[in-house]
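Work Package 3 (structural annotation) set out to generate three-dimensional models for the target panel prioritized at the project kickoff. During this period the team completed the workflow that converts sequence records into discrete structure tokens, so that structures can be stored uniformly alongside our sequence database. As a representative example, we reproduce one entry of 314 residues exactly as it appears in the project archive.
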Amino acid sequence: MVNITGKVLRITPLKEAGADENKKKVAADLIVADAFDYWRVSLRDDKTELADELREGDVLRIENARIVAEKRVYAGKYSNIIRVPTRIDALSRMKPQNLTVLAVARPEKGRVCVAGINEHGEWIRPQGVYEADVFSSPGTERFRNLCISKIYVDAWRGRHPRREDRFFIYGEGVKRELSEAEKREFLARYVDASVDAVFKNGRSLGLIKPRILHVYEATATDKDKEHETYIRFNFRDSNGRIYRRWSCRCSAFYKLWNDFKRRHRFSYSWRIHRYLRKNDTYLAIGLTYTDYGVERLEYGAYPMIVGVHVVKRG
């Protein structure tokens, strides 16, 4: 058992705690931190009722929490949780990272894939990012493409970790947007030679500058999503190899696509293709997890486009 005093930085959505009959309790996770460290606190049993009462910024005293893994505890019926009138400068002794964001994907079951490059030139994919973590308030984004966000991350301890995966502790939001000149310089600096140069060297994220051959809509084949449409790309990379039917998950590009579609009902597809071809278009690419049980995948997982970045030719 452990006692924790810390500030609530994040409250994740409620979820089912387990499938068996004894664990059909809903649970919410809190990220609670003091100046030096953090805990991921899972509310269980009667404590799940507190999820609607707690707010980000509350300072809590959690007594008799049960340690279940590194940095993770359960607070259930034997625990006591009270608000305390104490000021805590959370994470002030931890070193943040400045992430230049290159991917903010469309939400999937409430989660959002975010990825980018930190100040050391390393690709980072924060894990456990929810819609509420992206939009801190209506119209305010904590992550936006080609903007710098200040984040706190830790090692990812989930199954099948990819090289770039990190556990997302907290994000303070967008610090600033790159200027047009900075965008061109940043993309040119970190562009990879080809798709193979990314995925055949142990990485699951990268940036390419391809020749766009075709962009089109396709209807989902999943019965649960049969009315949804997905954008797909055909392109040729710098090695001259052609890739077809790559799914695009970039949230910003879907907004652009729908804007063209609304303004140019009969010619939007052609206009978007022309827009991508007359400017410098970069694609942030990524791999899904590798535990689907499908053999003989070329890169060991399914590739997709997670960010579309278009800048005017200098």
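Confidence is low (pLDDT under 50) at residues 19-24.
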